[in-house]
């Protein structure tokens, strides 16, 4: 019996080997007939019309993926080639008997054949490697991480649904409580009025007066939900009542309420108080994230376009394309805004304390970590473990290639240290590559509270340290650019390869901290103005507010600086050697510094309270508020949207500026929708939970209030 089983297994293996050999013979004969026909200038007779129509006719031509996939006896094969670290593509519709095991043996001959053709057409070999891939066989198998991420996604959706249901129930419950309270207050108010002695009015007038006063008292009580004092000549006492308070479990459920969070996230608030000018940061954040999306659209869609070979020559045209290499200034603007707000808001809290201690720093770190990490980690998990199964296409393997780097790199992102490691010789071996900004932001914030506490204790020492760090950042940028001979990162025809540019220069916090420090210095100026105790700064600020000429000069210099930094690189678009090396080193050291100083000059009048200021009108418009609130989640998701839309296509786009602008606008809309959903489902609930879990108890709150002073200290 055992001998019979072994015999059957051997016969099945023999049949399989014979079938494979037969398929290879058929495929050999298939390609041989095509080669002979092409050599004789004839149409191959063994090629079906579907194969001819559905196969690519040259580099970057994917053919007709959908038609080939629906054919019964054909299957789609993707030829992926690498040229100087960039992928090139071509699609083929082949008979089923041309299996992947056979095609993989043709990788090297295919590379040699294509290089012979490109040598003839372009006078150089373009292809470094070539490999055949079946788009239906590229999906990774489900792992434990995939199942856990799917469970997490289901739990998050369930919590949002349950929270939304509870919010409806809680709202009805609260409304019923307020109705009962309204009746009780009206009864008590009328009772107190009736008990008062009113000799001056007739009975009819007294009743009318009592009713009106009862309404006034009721409204006053309802407006102030802590306590209310009866208006009058001192004959009424204070009426106190308990404010409606949700149970802990109800507050937890409401934290995930989609309805409650939507009302909070997209509510338009009217700016009030001394910091009303901060509304301009809504416009700055929104326009900056749009600029980031535009730059990444140019990068990803441009490097995966039909006319890829034309791009180095198209990029020499000044105009919209000049804004592409300048898009990293949008990230510097984020750093500037972050530094400014950190300085103002943290100093505002510190100066209210009677004693400022460094023991406060860990709490600030924890708050910052909890503010960023949950949403960031959720995005990485979904991007890495789930999104690879959400689409297909002839080049979908490129998307899977991007996500596969997280298999070994994920922990670096979750610890905010991914920018400290090398990303391979190609500079592309990173998980969630755009997360370098969050790592820089978190690393810079680790020292921010320490710097601000030093400044609050001793202004001169704090300023000296911060200015020294700014000078050190500028010098380190120049030295690194000089020592590595780094030129500007632009895809001009004669641009030299710089695979280590991002690892050594672009991603490092000692390079990116300079805009953040300038934001802190602007924050110091603002705090000194608001405190009112530094009269010299108050007088300078008042002159800026009162003088149209001075405000105009601020705009002239501010706009002049930003636009000069952006457009001065136009000669380098055509020739990377248009500037001497020293000029490029200096530009890379000072460009982000001058750019954010220009931004700061433009927004200073609005920050000082000039309500008729143009930047206040444009950047402070209520339209920007909801977009600014979800800008963090938009940053997390925008690159996923771009990759998803690029690699799920069945045809590569022809690169021209009108197409890129169209796709940028489309990706902005998708990013707003997905970023908004992410913020509602994860970011805002986590912020709500943090308030519940870390809210100070009554004893701690009393102790904290006892450590505060009423007046501001001189900053």
UniProtKB/TrEMBL annotation:
Domain Acyltransferase: from-to ranges: 281-655
Keywords: Membrane, Signal, Transmembrane, Transmembrane helix
Transmembrane regions listed in the UniProt entry: 147-169, 276-294, 326-347, 368-386, 434-454, 461-481, 513-531, 552-570, 590-610, 630-654, 660-682
A GO molecular-function annotation: acyltransferase activity, transferring groups other than amino-acyl groups
Signal sequence segment: 1-19
InterPro entries for the chain: Acyl_transf_3_dom, O2_lipid_transport_reg
Superkingdom: Eukaryota
Protein name (record): Acyltransferase 3 domain-containing protein
Annotated source species: Paramecium octaurelia
């Amino acid at each position: 019996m055992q001998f019979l089983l072994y015999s059957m297994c051997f016969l099945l293996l023999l049949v399989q080997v014979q079938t494979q050999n037969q398929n290879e013979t058929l495929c050999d004969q298939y390609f041989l007939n095509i080669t002979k026909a092409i050599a004789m200038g004839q149409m191959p007779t063994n090629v079906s019309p579907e194969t001819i129509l559905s196969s690519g006719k040259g580099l970057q031509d994917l053919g007709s993926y959908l038609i080939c996939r629906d054919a019964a006896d054909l299957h789609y094969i993707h030829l992926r080639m690498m040229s100087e670290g960039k992928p090139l593509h071509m699609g083929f519709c082949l008979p089923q008997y041309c299996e992947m095991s056979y095609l993989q043996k043709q990788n090297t001959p295919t590379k040699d054949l294509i290089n012979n053709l490109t040598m003839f057409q372009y006078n150089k070999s373009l292809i470094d490697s070539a490999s055949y891939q079946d788009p239906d066989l590229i999906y990774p198998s489900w792992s434990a991480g995939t199942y856990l991420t799917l469970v997490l996604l289901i739990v998050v959706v369930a919590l949002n649904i349950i929270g939304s249901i509870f919010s409806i129930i809680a709202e009805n419950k609260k409304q019923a409580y307020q109705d009962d309270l309204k009746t009780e207050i009206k009864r008590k108010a009328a009772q107190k009025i009736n008990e008062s002695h009113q000799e001056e009015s007739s009975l009819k007038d007294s009743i009318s007066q009592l009713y009106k006063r009862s309404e006034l008292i009721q409204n006053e009580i309802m407006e102030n939900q802590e306590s209310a004092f009866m208006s009058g000549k001192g004959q009424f006492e204070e009426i106190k009542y308990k404010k409606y308070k949700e149970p802990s479990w109800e507050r937890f459920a409401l934290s995930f309420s989609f309805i409650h969070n939507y009302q909070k996230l997209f509510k338009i608030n009217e700016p009030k108080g001394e910091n009303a000018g901060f509304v301009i940061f809504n416009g700055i954040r929104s326009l900056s994230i749009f600029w980031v999306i535009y730059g990444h659209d140019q990068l990803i869609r441009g490097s995966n376009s039909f006319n890829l070979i034309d791009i180095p020559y198209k990029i020499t045209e000044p105009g919209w394309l000049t804004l592409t290499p300048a898009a990293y200034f949008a990230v510097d603007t984020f750093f500037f805004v972050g530094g400014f707000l950190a300085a103002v808001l943290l100093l505002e809290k510190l100066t209210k304390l009677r004693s400022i201690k460094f023991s406060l720093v860990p709490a600030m770190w924890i708050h910052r970590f909890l503010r960023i990490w949950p949403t960031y980690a959720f995005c990485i998990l979904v991007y890495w473990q789930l999104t690879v199964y959400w689409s297909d296409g002839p080049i979908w393997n490129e998307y899977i290639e991007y996500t596969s780097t997280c298999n070994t790199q994920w922990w670096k992102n979750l610890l905010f240290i991914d920018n400290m490691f090398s990303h391979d010789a190609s500079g592309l071996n990173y998980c969630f590559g755009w997360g370098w900004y969050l790592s820089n932001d978190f690393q810079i914030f680790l020292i921010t509270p320490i710097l601000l506490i030093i400044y609050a204790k001793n202004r001169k020492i704090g300023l000296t340290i911060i200015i020294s760090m700014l000078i050190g950042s500028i010098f380190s940028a120049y030295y690194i650019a000089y020592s590595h001979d780094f030129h500007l990162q632009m895809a001009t025809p004669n641009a030299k390869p710089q695979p280590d540019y991002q690892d050594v220069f672009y991603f490092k916090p000692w390079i990116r901290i300079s805009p953040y420090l300038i934001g802190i210095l602007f924050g110091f100026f603002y705090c000194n103005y608001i405190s009112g105790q530094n009269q010299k700064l108050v007088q300078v600020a008042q002159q800026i507010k009162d003088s149209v000429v001075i405000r105009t000069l601020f705009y002239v210099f501010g706009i002049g600086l930003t636009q000069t930094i952006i457009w001065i690189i136009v000669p380098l678009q055509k020739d990377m050697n248009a500037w001497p090396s020293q000029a490029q080193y200096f530009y890379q050291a000072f460009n982000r510094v001058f750019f954010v100083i220009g931004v700061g000059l433009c927004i200073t009048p609005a920050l000082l309270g000039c309500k008729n200021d143009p930047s206040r009108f444009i950047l402070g418009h209520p339209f920007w508020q909801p977009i600014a609130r979800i800008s963090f989640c938009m940053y997390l998701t925008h690159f996923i949207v771009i990759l998803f839309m690029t690699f799920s296509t069945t045809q590569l786009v022809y690169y021209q500026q009108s197409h890129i602008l169209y796709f940028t606008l489309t990706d902005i809309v998708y990013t707003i929708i997905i970023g908004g959903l992410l913020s509602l489902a994860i970011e805002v609930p986590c912020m709500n939970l943090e308030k519940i879990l870390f809210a100070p108890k009554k004893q701690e709150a009393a102790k904290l209030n006892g450590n505060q002073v009423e007046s501001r200290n001189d900053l």
